[in-house]
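As a point of orientation, let us examine one representative protein, giving the amino acid sequence and backbone structure tokens.
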Amino acid sequence: MNLATAFRLVPEITYERDLQESCASVLDKLILPPAFWFSAAIGATKLSPQQAAALSRAGIKRGLPDLLVLSPDAHGPRIFGIELKRHKGRLSVTRIVRTRRGSPRILEGQEDVFPKLEAAGMDIAIAHSVDEMLDALDRWQIPLRSHHR
């Protein structure tokens, strides 16, 4: 056995929840008013079917980006979405499941929801790292404190 095979380097696995917490910390430190951000990461924790159903009845929608940023521009308020994915992560797809009573229920995935959000005026970026999130904020001209990468 040669050493190259025995000690092959593999990339560190970044969990989406860790990425979410890192991005949240950076946003708390860097975003400047009048911009405002919040999280819509309902999927960051495991929910029981009963909890998921209760949130759905209360109006929580599936397929939203993890982070939402509100910021004005010359034409008025704008909303931006940042979807966080681990390396090689993909957008969720729509699927049909059965309820406890056997009725079919459509669970919309991000592949179908994101185009609807964009048609309504939301800009959406997919980020695999804090740097990719910061690139999107720069592209959108969101006011930030000075920062060094």
